[in-house]
Design a protein that fits this description.
alpha+beta, Serine Threonine Protein Phosphatase 5, Tetratricopeptide repeat, 2 domains, two-stranded antiparallel ribbon, 6 helices, 38% strand
């Protein structure tokens, strides 16, 4: 009986189920094979597909000639980004059945996986310490096509107006717009980057009397080009009011009278290639 399994967009190779008269080891391999298919049917996302790989691997360890297990394991490994392992599994499938009806398609799949593996390795080379346009450092960690950028520091010039005693301070940014260790989460598609930046709440002094700028999660877009990462970061602008209607000779106690959103702005950040790995 020929059966084609279809689950999660994956088409599984046809398998001729062994008869009850087969050896016990082959029955155990068949059991793990079916358990793997059950794991695929139950999986709600790619992370849960990992359990199926374990079951297919157990089947191949018991019966190294079980081609359907090699094939299905290769499909799941490719689906979950394990490109080298998928290539190995498909090669084992072809080594056992070089004249299979789908041999040509499997060879084409290997070529595609080799290209994806090369692209993945190039992306992994982005991991490391980068220089920022402010002369500081940023750490980039890569997982699949996702980048996690941890900035040492970041400033947003002209994003905050600070009014003290009803007077506009001429240079408030060195006081208010200093953000420690912001986190940028991006996904790379081609050479385009998109994602978010997470900014924690911040204040200029270690006292609750000064206004606190609220935490923000904002949009980030960018490009990877010629060894550089160029990002455009969206940022909320604020008007900060301190000691409103007080005079310079009033009580020296500092009081926050309000943090008022006044619109959005975009700041460009440039990261240059890693200075160390």
């Amino acid at each position: 009986m020929r059966i084609i399994f279809l689950s999660l967009g994956l088409v599984f190779a046809a398998v001729l189920f062994p008869s009850p008269s087969f050896a016990q080891s082959e029955d155990r391999a068949h059991t793990f094979m079916v358990r793997g298919l059950a794991a695929v049917e139950m999986a709600r996302n790619d992370d849960e597909l990992i359990a199926a790989i374990d079951e297919f691997r157990k089947a191949t360890e018991i019966d190294p000639a079980l081609t359907v297990a090699w094939y299905n394991m290769g499909k799941i490994q490719a689906k979950t980004g394990q490109f080298q392992d998928a290539i190995n599994s498909f090669n084992r499938y072809l080594a056992i059945t070089p004249q299979a009806d789908d041999a040509s398609k499997v060879r084409d799949e290997i070529i595609k996986l080799e290209y994806r593996l090369e692209s993945q390795e190039k992306l992994q080379n982005l991991s490391g310490i980068w220089d920022t346009s402010d002369g500081l450092k940023a750490r980039i960690d890569v997982t699949g096509s996702k980048l996690l950028i941890q900035m040492q520091q970041i400033t947003f010039p002209q994003s905050t107006e600070v009014w003290m005693y009803d007077d506009l301070l001429s240079n408030p940014n060195t006081t208010f717009d200093f953000r420690n260790s912001p986190v940028i989460r991006l996904e790379l598609r081609g050479n385009k980057l998109s994602g978010t930046i997470e900014l924690s709440a911040t204040t200029s002094l270690d006292t609750g009397d000064w206004c606190i700028l609220p935490a923000e999660t904002n949009q980030v877009n960018g490009m990877l080009e010629q060894g550089k990462i160029v990002l455009e970061v969206k940022k909320q602008k604020y008007k900060v009011v301190m000691n409103s209607n007080d005079g310079w000779l009033s009580s020296p106690k500092v009081r926050c009278d309000g943090v008022i959103p006044t619109g959005d702005m975009v700041t460009k950040i440039t990261l240059t290639k890693p200075v160390e790995r």
